[in-house]
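Researcher: Next entry: Cuticle protein 7 (Drosophila kikkawai).
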Amino acid sequence: MMGKFSYLLCLCLASAVWAIELQPEPDYGPVAYEFQWAVNDPHTGDIKSQKETRKDDKVEGVYELIDSDGYRRIVQYKADDHNGFEAIVQREPTDIKIPLPEPPKKLLAAKILTPVVPVAPLVHYAAPKAIIKQELSTGNYVSVSGPTAQYKY
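Model: Predicted structure:
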């Protein structure tokens, strides 16, 4: 009886899956955006910017930054379905000096004003007595080990 019920249940599930109609993804119209941002922090020397535009599947943009050696890196890029991603990288020298971090200040240890107290000697213990081995009686032994953790998904 249970086998017939399982067969019937599988048959119903299979027919339900077959009846699901796949819908195409809706067209949300053309995709377009434009953004830009810039950072200019003279204290840390962090100078960078980016500008990007997208219309449908074509993206164009440019970003620039000051490298740690003081050169300005300018990257002009574009991407589309036909050519993929293309970038043109330029480097230009600048007169910008990147500030170096200050070296850490030396800390002087305070003098100990209290007298040095002698430390008690280490205590050594004798080695433990030999462990007495017991002979196992003859017979059948079963070793059982189980899982140490259970995972439920």
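Model: Note for the record: The mean pLDDT is 76.
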